[in-house]
Fold this protein.
Amino acid sequence: MSDLPSPDQILEWIRDNPGQSGKREIARAFGLKGAAKIELKRLLRDMARDGLIEKKRRRAYPAGELPPVLVLRVTGPDRSGDLWAEPAQWEDASAPPPRVLILPGKDAPALGAGDRLLGRLTALEGPDAPLAARVIRRIGMGPKRLLGIYHDSEGGGRIAANEPTRLRGAAGWIAAFFCAVPVFVGFLVPVGILASMAVDSGQSILDSRYLRFAHNSLLLAGVAALFTVAGAILVSFRARMVPGRTSRGLLLAAGLGYAVPGGVIAVGILVPAAGLDNLVDGWTRDAFGVSTGLILTGSIWLLVLAYVARFMAVALNTYDSGLATVGPHMDAVARTLGRNPPRVLTSVHFPILKGSVLTALLIVFVDVMKELPATMIMRPFNFDTLAVQAHRLAADERLDQAAVPSLAIAAIGLLPVILVCRRLAARRPGLRPAALAERPAG
């Protein structure tokens, strides 16, 4: 029987032959057989207890050294673009895990932070050369990007992109200052100046004239918002149900109006409509001796048509952003259950997209309240709005009096904006991290 090797001889063999450090390989290298193998097992156990070697996967390695083949976890690239990793398991709490340089290979897979790989340590030349490893294969993808944090609510759960960060101290005051400057300069100061001018003008917003102007503005804005959003829903739903060149053409045509000035749209609609009115009036005069007058150009419906063409893109984009959250599989399931396309729209899409529809209505409402060129050109006789009255007074340089309808437009348009902002804020997390942590899972 061969003599049992000493601990120094075993350590030297392990360092010189890192791939043959199992008990069988060591016994074969020193010619140990029978009872000597039992003594070798005891010796290796004592060396591990004394901290001279570490046993991993039935192989022994010098303490504090990495095995030649090990599992690594990618930590990411450095500023030079070199990819680094660290051992997936590191039990020495007294020292940080060593960094291992991942050597590029011809067939090496693309790696990212968090990926796990099986690597083989490779010696690099140079006294300061770092630990390096070549990729044998990737054995696990890193965790996917965090999409958000799920929050439960009465109306259903939602995923928030992130939790708000509360700034404190100097950072909070600086952020508050820069956030307050646009509000102060762009809203509070102009409103204060307009309010002072309105008081000096001696006019009252409750005057019967201004109440009539407000009624006309609200009527036009409300009707135009309903028709515009309804048209956007139909165009978007058709593009979803019947995709193709025609649907893409409809979407493109519906979005062109926002890029065209309101005055151009008004003239483009008014000229053919006036020609049609004159044609109908001439025919009825010749046939019946009755004048029909201005059927189209003398009503608000032609003006509503101009608003629909002008602001269809706004409603369409708002509705489509909500429709993107409704997966196509939901339509397929509804059709499988016997729902025809109109029922899919009313029983599947509407309950989910009520918020998007309301937001589209409010945005179009505010835009129509402020629209001037199309209203100036196409409004019926003796049908003035707040925007038209403000323009007329400002054109006559009666700025104090123009402040009254201007403030009325701002006040009426501010309410829908507040409702939209409150709805958008309701979609945010609303829970601080501590409060979220206190809630039971599930």
